[in-house]
Every structure is written in C-alpha cells, then in structure tokens.
Amino acid sequence: MDSYPPEFILHHVPLMAVIGLGTARDLAEQPTPTNGSVQNSPGSKAQSRRSSLSAASIPRQPPSKALLSLLTAKNQVGIWGPGRNAIAGFHVVAVEKNHQFPPRKPTMRPPAQTHHPNMPVAHSPISPLTSGSPVHPDGLIPPIWVKKHREVLPSVVVGFYELWHHSSPEPINEKEEISPTQEGTIESMDKEKDYILAMEINERRKSLLERGIKFSAVMLLKTQNIDKTMDERMFLKDQAMDERLAYIRRVSGLDARHAFFVLPPSQHGDFQDFVTNLQKSLYEYGLNYYREHGKRVKRKRSRLPSPSGGNYMRPPPPLSEKPSTSPQPLGVQGWMIRYDYKLATFAEFRQDMEAAIRYYDSAYNLIIDLFAPQSSITPGATGLPIRSKRWIEARMLADTISLKICKLNLYIDSPSAALSQLNKHVSTFKDISNTLGIGEDTFEYWAWLSKQYRVFADVLEIAIRSGFTIPDPEKISHNTTTSDFRFSMSSMSSMSTISNNPNTGSGINPTMVLQHPGFYYYIAAKYNSLRRKKFLNLEKYMKKEGIDKSILPPQDTLDAEQSIDHSTLTIELYTKSYEQFKTQKTGRMTLYLASEIANTYLDAGKYETALKFFERIAKTYRKEHWHTILESILRWSLVCAKELGTWEKVVEYLVELLSDQFSISNQQRIEIHSELMDILFKMNIDNLPELRQIVIDMDEINSFLTCRVQFKDDATFIGAETFFQIAFSTQAESPPIPLRFTFLRLSFNDSYFNHFLRDNNNEKDSTKLEWIDCKNCLQEDIEGEGLIWVKDVDLNFNKGITKVFEGSIEPKESGDLQLQAVSLGFLTDRWKVELHFNLKNTREEHSKRKWLIGNNDSKDQVTKPTYTVLNGTGERTSIKATQKLARLDIQAKHSAPALLDEYYPIELTVVNSEQDDVKTFLNAEIVTDVPSNSENSEDFITLDPTTTTNVSNNLRDIDIGIIPSGESVVKIIYVLGKKSNLPRTLHLTVYYASTNSVPSTPFPSRGWIEKKEDFRIHFITPFNFSFNISQQSESICKRKSENSMERVERYFLVAKITTTSPCEILVTDIDLNLLGQANAQTRMEITTSSIEIDDDFQGQVWKQGNIYIVNYLLELTLMDIKKLDIDIGLLVIQWKRNQQSSVVKDIKIPCTESTVVVPQLIRKKAEISAFIRIPPNPKVGQLFTLVYKIINWTSSEKKIHVNIEVNDSFVFSGYKQTHFIVSGMGEHCFKVNCFPLIGGKMKLPKVNMEKRGEFEGDEETINIIAPGYKEVIEDDYFVIFVKPKVEI
C-alpha cells in the first residue's frame, strides 16, 4: 500500500483543530514530569487560604500540555477506523493561537469560451479550472484535496483561553490587606481584560462561521481566580465569577450549552472525562459540517449537464488538420467523477459508510469508462492515452477507490461485497489491459495484479487485527442478510427452490467466499513470480537484433522494473502467506508455501537457503508418502547441491531418486543411475579430499532396496553355531541396469562378529531368488575396518531380485547378541559410500518368519532354494545367548566347625559328567556374610599352608588340569579366617572347555563353560581371654636414686585363657610380646612369668572348658607421671588341632598363632599418691599398725588433711583429724594403731585424705591404694580378715 498516496487509502474521521494549547512540536519538546500531573484529592477542596497559596507555588506540568496530550492521544490515523460502535472520535490537530484558516473560495465569472455556462464559478486553487493547479486542465482529484480536509480544514475548532487575573510579580504577603481604592481598580481591569478576550473569541467565531465551522471556547481557570476567603465549592457559586464568565459568553456570542465550556482548577488533575465529554458534545457538529459540504457538492453535481447531450461533446479535429496535442478541459464526465468522489469522501468523514460506498462505486464506474477506446457515457469521447500522465493518475484513483470500497464493505461487515468488488476490479482491468496491449503477456499487468491482491490482503489483515471476523463458510447460508451479498444471483434465485426441498443441500459460490489474508498473499506472490518471468523474457527479447521497439514499455518503466528485487518481494509475500496459513493450522498448505519459497530462492540463485528449505520440507512429504511432490523437491535439491558443490548431497539425492516410488520413466531412471556411477567412478571433482565418506540412512529415504534379517533360532548357547540370514530385495523397476556394490558390512553389538563381505566380480546370470553362503569366513585385518571376518561373495544386484546371505557365528559369552546395522557400499579411490540399514529398532511386522534353504547339486552348486516357515512373526535382529548347562559337579569335604586363625583344610572334588575330556580352571573366594570391604579382609585362601606370603581372600586361575569323561579330580585348599567368628561363604567357580575345542581366548570369555557352587563355613573362636592388672606394694613406687627423676611402678598381670574349641587343641607356646612405647623414657619390662617358672610347659593338650592362667610381673619405668594410658602388648598362643582332619591325613599342618591385645594399663591421674601397708594375719586382741605412705610427685609442697572415721570393729589410737605438709618430691608416713575387737571380715577404720590449696573450695580427695587389695569405690573401704582370739 505504500505505492499509493496515503490520503487515498486512510480512513476518514472528522477533523478538530485546537487553539491555545500550543502545537504538537511544543508537546514533543516539553519534558515529561516524573510524577505526572498533580491530582487533587477530595479533601483538598476544603483547604484554607494558606494551603491554597502554598499549593499554587508548587511547580507542576502546565494544564495545556496535559490537555493537548489527551486530545491527540487517540488520533484516528490509519487504514481502519475506530469501529462502527466506537464512541465519538476526532482527528485532532493543534495550531498556533494566531493561526489563520484558508479563506473561502474566491468568486469569479467563468471564461467566455467555456462550453459549460452553468458550471460553478467558485474555483479552488486546486481546481482543474485554476491555472497552476496540479490537475489543470483535465485532472480529476489530487491527493492534496483530501489532505486539505484531513489536516487543514477542520469541522470543529476549540479555543482554550485563560481567564485574566491580576497578579503581582512579588509573592503576596498574607498579612497585607487590599484597600478599597485598589479593589475598584482591579475590578475595572477585570472588565477590560474580559472584554478584550470576548472580542477575540467573537472574531474567531465569525471568521469560522463564514466557512460553516463550529467554534467552541474553553475557559481555563487558575487557582488565582479563586477568592482567598472561599474554598472551591464556594467558588463554583461565586456570583462575581459567574458574572464575568456570563459576560464573556454573551459578548462573544457563544451558545452556553455546546460552545462555551469552563474548566475549573479542581479538574486540572484529571482531564480525561472533560476531553471525552467535549468531543461527544461537538461530534454531531462535526458530522453536520461534512453533511453540509455533501449537500453543496450534490447541488453542484445536479447542475451539471448530461454527458450524453450533443452540445457538450468534444468536437473531433478536422481531417485535414493534425490532432491537437494540447490538453483539453475536463469534460462533464470528469466533473461527475470529481463530485462523486467528494460526496463519497464527505460521507466517509461523517461515518455514513453505506453512502460512501454508493458514491465511491459511482465514481469507480465513471472512471472505468475513461479507459475504454470509446466512452459509453460521453458519446464521441475517446479513452485516455495509454501510459499518459492522466491515464496513470486515473488508474491509481481507480485502484484506491476499489480498495476503499473493499475496505468499507469489510468495515460494515459485508465480506462478500468486498470480495465481489475485488473480483470486479481485477476482471475489469484484465479486459482493459488486454485491449490496450498491456495484458497478460506483459510484466506490467502482473505487477499491477500482484499489487491488487497484496493491498487487499493487507487491508484484510488489518481488519482482522481490529476485530473483524471472517465468516465461516458452513454458516454463511444461515446468516445471509440483505446487506451482505455473500451469494451470486443464481444461487440467491435458487434459494426458494432449495428451501422447498429438504433433501437438497444448499450450495455456495466458492468465488464469493472470503478467505483469510494468507490466500491473497499467496495469489499476490504467484503473480509476482509471473511478473518476474515476463520481465526476464522481455529482457531476452530486447537483446535480439531488429526488434520492434514501438511495442516496448517506456524506458523509465523498464529502469524502474530493473531496480526491483523480484525474488525478495516474492519471498516476502510467500512468507506473509505462510504465517497466515500457519495460524490457521493448515499443515499441508504451509509445506507447499515453504516449497514455493524454496523455489523462489532457487530462481534467485540463493542455493544454500533454498536447499535448507527443501530438506526441511522433504522430511514431511517423505514421511507421508507424497512421492509426486517429493520427486520435484529432490530434483530441485539436486540442482542446489550441484551449484553449491556439496557432492555428498548429490549422491544421496540420486540414490533416493532410483526408487520406483517416483513415477518417472525408465530412461530417466537410467540417466539417474548413470549420473551416480559417473560421479563415483569417473568424474574428477576438484577440491575433493582424498577419500570422502558418505553414510546414507536408507530407512530415512525412499529406498530401492529393502533389507530383512532373521536369526534362525530364538535362543542359542555359548559356543554353539548360530545361523542368520540377510535378505536384500530390489524393486520391480530399480535399479534399471545392474548395480554392483563393492562391499557388504555386517555390524554386531559385539565387534568381534563383524563381517566384511567383498564383491567377487563374478559375471553370471542373476535369478529372481538367490541364496549365498557366507559361512566359513576368515579373519583378516582390513584397512579402515580392523580385524574382521571376510569372504568374497556376489554383490551384483538387478531389478526385481532377492539375494539372501546366510552366515553363522559362535557366541562366546552370555547376553543379547544383535545385528545392529547392515551397509552396502561403493569403495573407489575418492569415495566411500555406504547405504546404511539401521536394525537397532526392530520394525513391527505380522508376517510369518521364513528361512531360505539352499539346495546343493552334485557339483556343490546351489539350485532352487526353497523357503521354510519358522516359528513366530516379524524380524529377528537379535538372539539371546545363554550358558550351556554345565555337566560338572563340585563337591567340598571338611571337618566343621572351622576355628579362627587355623589353616582349615577343604577337600574339593570336581566330577566330569561331560561326554568329552575337559580342561578345567578354578577360582575360589572366601567372603564374610556381613558386607564389608573384601580388600581389607584378613581372611585368605592358600594351596600351601607353609607359605603365607602374597596371600589373599581369593584364588585365581588355578589350573586343575584335564579331567577325563566320567572321572574326577581332588584339590585341597586351606582357608584361614581371622578376627570375626561370623560365617563365611566359599564361592567356587570352575571354567572348563572340551579338549577337542579349547578356545584360543583366555577364560572366562568366549567358549568356556562356567560352573559355580557356594559353600557356607561356620567359624568359632578357639579361646576366650580375660585379664586382670593390679599394682604391687609401695616399695616399688620409688626413685632409682635420690637424684633420679624416674619413677618405677610394678604391676601384676593375670591372663585367664579358656578353651572353647569342641576339639582338642595342642598348645606349644604362650608368649607376651610387649609393645614399644612412644616415649623412650617410658619402659615396660617383664620381671618374671609363670611360664618361665613352669619348666614342664613343652606342649599341652587343652580340651573344651579347660582354663589356663598365665601370670606376669611387669615393671614400668617412666619420668612423665602424667602419662596415664600405657600399652602393654600382645598375648600370642601357638597351637593347632591335636588330631589331624580326615581331609588331610598324611599332610602335616604347621601350628598357627592366635593373638589377642592385652588391655591398656590405666594409671590414675594424681599429683599425690597414698599407699597403705596392711600387716598380714591380724588377730583379735592384738594391736597392729597401719602405715600410710604419701608421696608428692610435684616440685611444690602440698598440705594434706586427714580424717579418720570410727567403726565398731576396731579401736584406734591417735587424732581423728590431723594435717601435715609433704614437701616437693618428698614423702610422708602416717601411722594408725588399731586394736581388733571382732573376728572375721572387717572393714578397717576409713581414712579420708584430701589435698587443700590456698583458697577455699580448692580441695582434692586422695585415693588410697593397698597393694594386693581391690581398689575402693566411694563409701567402700578395705576389708581384712581378723583371726579370732582362739583358733578353732
């Protein structure tokens, strides 16, 4: 639509001019305040005089700018109007206060030589009768005329004025009072200013009244206009202010209701309601303005003579004279066009769309007659000269009028009438163009036609965005109205007949059904494509010699066409259509449009972009089997790929085009085949790397080959020969000539079984069904393939044949074995092309499984292969390999239970039940039942108990040897469990293979049969240990010398060993291994032990429940008395079973060791030690002395307080309470004399000792130790046995 003047296509609404608010330029330059206009709350109306003055001094946005912003915010400038049900709307322009509107037309008498004496005499500067006008002398309507009424001549003018108020440049002092004399002067100035303002308004009103323009005034009142002694509510009833406003209105001659408005300060913050009400009140005046204009134009038209009158015919020139080339004055028909167009425009301004359509249609029909060779309206008048200035203007006016009619019909919801006008316009100018020689054979016609559909699509798209709804064709017959001509006349005339026959379905004329904009964008794009072709043909024609240049368009037209990028324009239109169809969710059409876009890119030489489109489109057409369309796309893609030099794509497209799914002739298919072979084997392509590899996924294209795979069995065993077949079938028409492949690759999920079958280049006649033996392959190292199974076979394929390749494999391990891919390929010096069939995803088929059996004749040649039916349906691309049932028995013999720390022998017997001799290997592992880290386990298995190095909890790859069929072999292993007495599981695995076919690969991989057995072994501890440590007499707790800082302590260790083994145990030695101390100044030594004293301990047999006690006297030397925890060492017992197990009668098993950690020596943390020496064998009635020895281990003296508690068993002499001081590193002895009174076990008088410091609360109780006695706890004390006086 940009090629048409906007004045001819924009929607017209009444024009309002505002005066006194500045211009749009002032509004653009005005900085916007951050908080907008100030709004007054309801409570602000009751403010006092002080608050009013303070608010007036606050700077804010001028009200004029806010008003102007609201008035111009919704300017109706666009293709589509505000809607039929919208509120009153104006197009608002702001002019200067002193702006002068154009005067009325001047009045002049018509020239004497005019042929139309009744023609109006008032001429506009842009009238054809005015010299210098752009349409003088025979033009129709210039765009400037429409612009004049859209932008210059308003229908309503609103002036905004401020009521004058005296104001001093200095701030008003509230304490000052105005004298009566000053008040009188101010009143006289108010009247004078009001009179001047009223006269100014009156002059403006009179000048506009002459043109019939409605004028209204708006009085803007300021805060200063309010009396300081009243609030705004009182101001509204102020008599003086009301008199001033009434005076201005009366003098200016304005109507109080529709021409004079007052805007008080209370509304300055919210102008929206005021602006809306203002436009509503003036809207009818605006419509009346254009209504009066229409009446004036209608009167002028009525005064025009009839164009068919003879005295108004344009006289032809004499035959003897040449026709005059000077322009002739505008004829009656031209004036009729002008007046009809003006009537339509004014009707549109006043929003009378039906009348506007009627007048536009009249003007359109009159304009169409101007293009005819002979006018049918004005007899004798000839048509406009082709390509002349007026001819071009008339055609542009006809286009825009037609567009107006279409748009206004859509505006009033009459879509069929809009479409009818489009069809009428296109059909009319098609006939006109063909008659004038600029028809369908010229690019000009197609350029024009493409434009018509594009602008119609643009208008329709804008209408839809604005709320217009395209009617549903299925509902049109039920919603037909008289205002919507949705049916042709024939269909309308037959409606009564159809309605009388209920069995007859109602019909609808498809050409009269309005489509969405995408359809018209598509038509515009197609016509633009034809435009390009016609122009290219014209260029070719112009390059020829001796052409007739008279039939060529003007040079400026050719130059303009040459500058247009036709392809870009066509792609733009297709893209717009694509987006519209996409919103309609029409997938087929969007794909078609995408292909048209790709073709346009192809024609424009943008091959890369075109190829991307083609590839994306081809996926859907390929998936949905639209082979005819796909063939075209592939051929176009082939052209793009060749131009781009992407030969991989060329090869792929040629391979797909070989499929007979495409309806092409055999000769074309041979040409495709030959071109493919030439590229691969003959063509020398520049810039091609040494070897270009292409993998074509045949499952993603239309393939001339089908591939089917079958495993003969559903399952197989490891090491068993497993058969499979691969069947290739060619189509009935492809390949057109024999096609010989270079190789056939079979890819398994285990690369060990991959096959590489090479062509043997044998020339022989092919049969419809051929069985090829691919068994007995040899392994070779092929470059690019690695170590692979290889065989030479026939890979020559003719059309309509089936080749079945049968091979075999031997699974080497359990699991699913799948044939994942099959590739037929060509291998040349420059190319490696693979036709890849992906078999990972099995296709669902319901046909019976078949197996082809090849029958060999006497010469070992395959003849007449036949099919046999297998169980199941569909393909079998994978097979499950399982371990063959092992016929080997593993037995274990041992003497339970096992003891911890012993070499526990287990006799393993492996029995061979196979028919062949077998080669066997053994793996064994001992695992504790509780999950733990087996790597940290101290358990181990060994074959030799005398060797304890490099042992672990498992044995690997133990060669058992060859076991003859039906015989067995015995192997003894030794298991040693440590620490935990939890049960263990012995995992045994025997791998074996027949000696006739021992696999070359190591077990447990391919070819080895596996036999597993698990045995549980219960362990018990052979011994239980308990320990007791006691400190000896205080004489040991001494220094080695007076100057020595070492402290010596003596302890007595008692180890109690209880036998828990159910079998007899031979103990050969018991030893205490002392641990080294972390500090070199701390030492522990064994002074003596019961083992050393007992010279007879050379080996003892312990039975279950036997208890053996070992005593050790330990001497501890240390300097750091703060060291509390002392490690002692390990108690080690060397032993073995007294009786050999029946498993190893003749094998001598060495002794083993059981080790237990002796608990730590826990020393008491004390700076003061107190020891009591109790005499032996006290008697009743005999005095004995208790000696308490206190040792101070620190360098500072300590104060000791003693308290003795009396009991009934003893009488003692001395102080019950006493205290003494023990010097640093010194000793003190404290004695208590006791006299026993009662015999038996008696508690000694309790002595409480505590160390006291310098401060209260710094007391510490001292524990008293009696060597050989149990340590006292809390209230307990030492108990001794007192002998009676007379022994019994």
TrEMBL record:
Residues 31-43 have a biased composition (Polar residues). InterPro entries: Gryzun, TPC11, TPR-like_helical_dom_sf. Residues 694-1241 form the Gryzun putative trafficking through Golgi domain. It holds the Pfam family Gryzun. Residues 27-60, 294-327 are annotated as: Disordered. This is Trafficking protein particle complex subunit 11 domain-containing protein. Residues 294-303 have a biased composition (Basic residues). Residues 390-659 form the Trafficking protein particle complex subunit domain. Residues 44-59 have a biased composition (Low complexity). PANTHER family: FOIE GRAS (PTHR14374), TRAFFICKING PROTEIN PARTICLE COMPLEX SUBUNIT 11 (PTHR14374:SF0).
